Amino acid sequence: MSVLNGKKILLGVSGGIAAYKTASLVRLFIKAGAHVQVIMTPASKDFVTPLTLSTLSKNPVYSSFFNQDDEDAVWNNHVDLALWADLMIIAPATANTLSKMTTGNCDNLLIATYLSAKCPVYFAPAMDLDMYKHPSTLSSFAALKQFGNVMIPAESGELASGLSGEGRMAEPENIIAFLEADLESKLPLKGKKILITAGPTYEAIDPVRFIGNHSSGKMGFDIAHEAANLGAEVILVSGPTHYKAKNSLVKVVDVISAQDMYDACHLYFNDVDVAIAAAAVADYRPKVVALQKIKKAADDFSIELEKTKDILASLGAIKKNQFLIGFALETENEIENAKLKIQKKNLDLIVLNSLQDEGAGFKKETNKVTFIDHNFEIEPMELKSKESVAVDILNKVILHFSKS
Ligand code: CTP
């Protein structure tokens, strides 16, 4: 999945012949799953029509501060447009527009929106080769980079003037590749490896029966998905569940029993930066697994159980620099029990679920958690979707790495 998926992109088009290429650019953004709004300078409309970009972006295209054609003029709010965007790209960026961006000369909607934007801004220059090398243009590039804007360099080739050289706007495919690479390199968990456990475990009684629990695996899969969106490489060790990983950065290791999960976790743990134990691991398993299906005979039947290994505690016992997060599902004396688990399992953070909270627990779409860190700082959170809880957990991970 492209890192542009779900991103809100504001495309500013200025008046150069390369503006015709923005039709392909908008199409590629949409194909990547982005939401696109377009602002055009008046001059750019000579090169590509607003109708083309509106049709492709599936949104109205803006080019002036108010809609002149409307009887009751409607103001196009440049601040709203700028705040809507996750990223803004000015392509093509002519020498004139670049210069106005550096001085704040906002005589059109595009520059006013640029000045209001708080999101990352990219610009893809397009001009003739001598203009591209002129000290005035070079000083615009330098000033914009100084502002924190990112330049997508022009390419070499035949130019509208008939001359050949540097100055062609980067091809739409290359702009997409540039944005994806740049955004990926800046993701907060880029370069981090995270081990996550999810789902229930099934402990065999005989070849057809097992002891299990109602965990759906959703919480662990949501954490894995969110971690991958933030750039992390994820190893998701999951018990039986119908969930599938949605991101190629998530490697799913399917397991069945607590022992399988233990073995898989120990295979990867040394190599990871973070481990998050969201699985509902069976605490006990049948001491003996019958080789054949157990036939019904006596009126009473009992199974002798033995303890499974505590995977999280075993990871806590060998951890070096790994940031270790556990879950605690409690029904009474929640905070005290959770604090004990932090100590017993050598955790950095525990995510406490209380079954006394409505909306929390197994087979629910929502969760209400309280974070407790190793210093016993307690932070109760609101009832939220499990996706939002996953975001909160990963924010704790990001915070940890920002301090270390
Ligand atoms: N856990 C684990 N291995 C086990 C049991 C639990 O890794 N054999 C992990 C869970 O994934 C969770 C945490 O330990 O992150 C706490 O699980 P919980 O069931 O709340 O606590 P237990 O330690 O099993 O203790 P108890 O059931 O007595 O509350």
TrEMBL record:
Keyword Mitochondrion in record: no
Any Pfam family hit: Flavoprotein
Residue ranges annotated for the DNA/pantothenate metabolism flavoprotein C-terminal domain, each copy included: 189-397
Record-linked InterPro entries: CoaB-like_sf, CoaBC, DNA/pantothenate-metab_flavo_C, Flavin_trans-like, Flavoprotein
Annotated PANTHER family: HOMO-OLIGOMERIC FLAVIN CONTAINING CYS DECARBOXYLASE FAMILY, PHOSPHOPANTOTHENOYLCYSTEINE DECARBOXYLASE
General function of this protein: Catalyzes two steps in the biosynthesis of coenzyme A. In the first step cysteine is conjugated to 4'-phosphopantothenate to form 4-phosphopantothenoylcysteine, in the latter compound is decarboxylated to form 4'-phosphopantotheine.
NCBIfam families associated with the record: coaBC_dfp (TIGR00521)
Family designation: In the C-terminal section; belongs to the PPC synthetase family. In the N-terminal section; belongs to the HFCD (homo-oligomeric flavin containing Cys decarboxylase) superfamily.
Protein name: Coenzyme A biosynthesis bifunctional protein CoaBC
Gene of this entry: undec1A
